């Protein structure tokens, strides 16, 4: 009985450590995106997204699909460093739904010379061999 209890305790500790490491990895993706955006680098910002036709982005004009479409929309709607401004994320929740899927909810604030758009987002992340990637983004 003692061995079983010890085994269960060790197993729970490892599971908790793995979950903590996954949450940290997801937060690192978002921090890297923030830095890339603030450097005016949409291509590096997009590295946080799954490079796939199945990537889904939902914004004020409805859903769009595909990595290249999302990237083209970012470049069109936020031209140059001035159009991109300074992005700040405020992450409210990171919840692991399974060993390879996570839900993230947060707020964004974009400071530009002419305005300061802000809103909220929900993201679905999936873990791949090369790390955590956003597979669905709903920003409003």
From TrEMBL:
Signal peptide: 1-20
Keywords per UniProt: Signal
Residue ranges occupied by any DUF4440 domain in the UniProt entry: 26-134
A Pfam family annotated for this UniProt entry: DUF4440
Highest taxon listed in the record's lineage: Bacteria
Name this polypeptide is given: Periplasmic L-asparaginase
Species: Pedobacter quisquiliarum
């Amino acid at each position: 009985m003692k061995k079983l209890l010890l085994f269960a305790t060790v197993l729970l500790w490892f599971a908790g450590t793995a979950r903590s490491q996954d949450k940290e990895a997801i937060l690192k993706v978002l921090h890297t995106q923030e830095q890339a955006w603030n450097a005016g680098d949409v291509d590096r910002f997009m590295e946080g997204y799954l490079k796939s036709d199945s990537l889904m982005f939902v914004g004020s004009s409805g859903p769009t699909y595909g990595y290249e479409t999302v990237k083209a929309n970012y470049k069109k709607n936020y031209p140059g460093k001035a159009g991109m401004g300074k992005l700040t994320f405020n992450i409210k929740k990171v919840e692991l739904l399974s060993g390879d899927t996570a839900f993230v909810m947060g707020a964004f604030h974009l400071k530009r010379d002419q305005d300061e758009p802000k809103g909220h987002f929900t993201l679905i992340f999936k873990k791949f061999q090369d790390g955590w990637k956003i597979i669905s983004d709903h920003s409003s």
